[in-house]
Amino acid sequence: MNSASSTTVTVNRVDERIARLVFSNPTHRNALSAQLLTALDESLIALASQRIPVVILGSEVGQSVWSAGHDIRELQHDRDPIAYGKPLEQVLRRIRAYPGVVVALVSGSVWGGAVDLVMSCDMVVADRSASFAMTPVNIGLPYTTSGLLRFFNNLPIHVLKEMFFTAQKLDAVRAERFGLVNRLVDTDVLEATALELAHGIACKAPLAVAAVKEQLRILEDLQPIPVQAMEQIAELRRQACESADFGEGLAAFAERRPAAFNGN
Known about the structure:
With 264 residues, this protein is α/β, with parallel strands linked by helices. It has a single domain, classed as Alpha-Beta Complex (2-enoyl-CoA Hydratase, Chain A, domain 1), CATH 3.90.226. Helices cover 47% and strands 16% of the residues. It has 12 helices and 10 strands. It has a 6-stranded mixed β-sheet, with helices on both faces. α1 runs parallel beside α3. The longest helix is centred in the first third of the chain and has 16 residues. The radius of gyration is 18 Å and the shape is globular. The mean pLDDT is 91. One of its GO terms (molecular function) is catalytic activity. Belongs to the enoyl-CoA hydratase/isomerase family. This is Methylmalonyl-CoA decarboxylase. It comes from Pseudomonas jessenii.
């Protein structure tokens, strides 16, 4: 996929069982634009139809930023970019439902919605330049319940709160300690490590692997929430998305200045 902004999503077949899915948006630090997310979604659909057992997903190795997260320019026209039907949520569901294993290959810093992209993958291989920062609070954007559950199932609650309340980076060493990263290696062996892991999975019975993955997805989703609680959460998110603070957060980001939030 190509555009004037050089946004691309490329599928490289390693062999008949493994594919490398590479996304790139170099002029905007690999931001997850709607265009890029749509291309990722289409590529995952195509790979699933070809019954590729293992997909390695990531941007090019060696960049300082794996992905800057949502394309902030698009948020000016979308007050809730992480709602159910939006491009990012569509891709996250596609990864979680993919009938095979999706391995995130991470080199460089990961920001905002891109952290959720990594968390939605089945395994994570990272180098020591990797870091993970959940930044929605910087612009006043409230995260979704489904998104928080992905973190809730994978991180200690106090680490989760630290990430979402402070927007500070979780470095690669701490990420490995808390189980977010499966393999932490030097950059020069990052791709080889991911391929070794992929080959180890690809030689196993694909139907058995897919069945286990789907069972685990269902078990992770078994989070009964009363209707009243869901309505309360929806109202809190609506208020935050429509607030003056959200507009101030976007303006401050665009103007590269600290935001002046006042709780309205």
